[in-house]
Design goal:
Number of strands: 13
Shape: elongated
CATH architecture of the largest domain: 3-Layer(aba) Sandwich
Helix content: 40-55%
Oligomer: single chain
Order of helices and strands: HEHEHEHHEEEHHEEHEHEHEHEHEH
Strand content: 15-25%
Radius of gyration: 20 Å
CATH topology of the largest domain: Rossmann fold
Number of domains: 2
CATH class of the largest domain: Alpha Beta
Largest sheet: 7 strands, mixed
Structural class: alpha/beta
Number of helices: 13
Bound molecules: adenosine-5'-diphosphate, magnesium ion
Mean pLDDT: 92
């Protein structure tokens, strides 16, 4: 394409709400064969709500919530925001983030861990049967279960969920029409991921769940090794490395600065349909469509 065509493409992109880092980005957009979509905050709103707190036997739901919220107040994760809500939280010290797994900190002299059930198990906390059951029950209905624990035991389950963006199903359909295969990639568990995939029209075979941030990069690389040209759309800190690895990294303007810094394109309004507009624009600019 001529420099003039690229400049026109960039200007038209800005009108559509697409920030384009460099002219090469348009070329990659045109070639994309697979579009990998992060779930939380990309396909869903990322505005998780706390639906329920299930205490372990002998524990109090309010105490579980308060301690969990104290720890989560150090995190920006959608799960953390749901757990904190508008609660006045006790002070926490020594905050530590286990990226894509959970968080921990000291509250009232007690080391509190909050995160995926697997994180608590790895850290050697015992998980009582009623806690395991509450996790199972929440996940079976497509929700996300976060476990809080201290002093060697899981003490309760916080059940959170968010909603699919009203534009996501349409966006997936448009991307598919343009010949891109949509893949859902998430750190959340399989059943939550499948429920979202079904709602937006992604094939269950193209759902990759339970991955760590490192796993997101590895999955993008695997697709590239299979000969795919990979576009990846994400919003989180945990997506940044995968956005950089992708042939075309697309960040949401509603997401984190880290994701935008790693991406080739930014969709200013966070509307996934604009990813399809970007593909169409690049093909037109570079002369595939006339
Ligand atoms: P996604 O890929 O959908 O954006 P993440 O990789 O950020 O999800 O998170 C994956 C899972 O890790 C969450 O569903 C949650 O179970 C757990 N997790 C991550 N951060 C936190 C946190 N701050 N508090 C509790 N759980 C967390
Ligand atoms: Mg996300």
């Amino acid at each position: 394409a001529t420099p003039t065509a690229l400049m026109v493409g960039t200007g038209r992109g800005a009108q559509l709400g697409i920030l384009i880092r460099g002219p090469e980005a348009l070329e990659q957009t045109r070639r994309a064969s697979v579009v990998v979509l992060d779930k939380t905050g990309t396909v869903t709103t990322g505005q998780m709500r706390l639906l329920d707190v299930v205490p372990a036997a002998g524990e109090d739901a309010e105490r579980v919530r308060a301690l969990a919220a104290a720890v989560e107040s150090g995190s920006e994760h959608p799960v953390a925001r749901a757990v904190v809500g508008d609660l006045e939280v006790p002070a926490a010290d020594g905050f530590r983030n286990h990226e894509g797994l959970g968080v921990e900190a000291e509250v009232d002299g007690v080391r509190v861990l909050v995160g995926r059930p697997s994180l608590l198990e790895e850290q050697g906390l015992a998980v009582p049967a009623e806690v395991a059951d509450a996790v199972e029950h929440a996940e079976a209905s497509g929700r996300t279960a976060v476990v809080a624990g201290w002093e060697g035991e899981a003490r309760g389950v916080l059940v959170v969920a968010d909603e699919v963006k009203p534009t996501s199903a349409d966006a997936v359909a448009r991307l598919r029409e343009l010949g891109l295969r949509p893949v859902l990639l998430t750190g959340d568990h399989e059943r939550a991921a499948r429920a979202v995939a079904a709602e937006v029209g992604i094939d269950p075979a193209d759902v990759v769940a339970g991955v760590l941030p490192r796993g997101k990069v590895e999955h993008v690389r695997r697709l590239q090794e299979q000969g795919e040209v990979v576009a990846m759309v994400g919003d989180g800190v945990n997506d940044a490395a995968a956005l950089a690895q992708a042939d075309l990294g697309i960040a949401l303007g509603t997401g984190t600065d880290v994701a935008m810094a790693a991406a080739d394109l930014t969709l200013v309004r966070g509307d996934l349909r604009v990813a399809a507009d970007a593909v169409r624009l690049s093909r037109r600019t570079l002369g595939t469509i006339r």
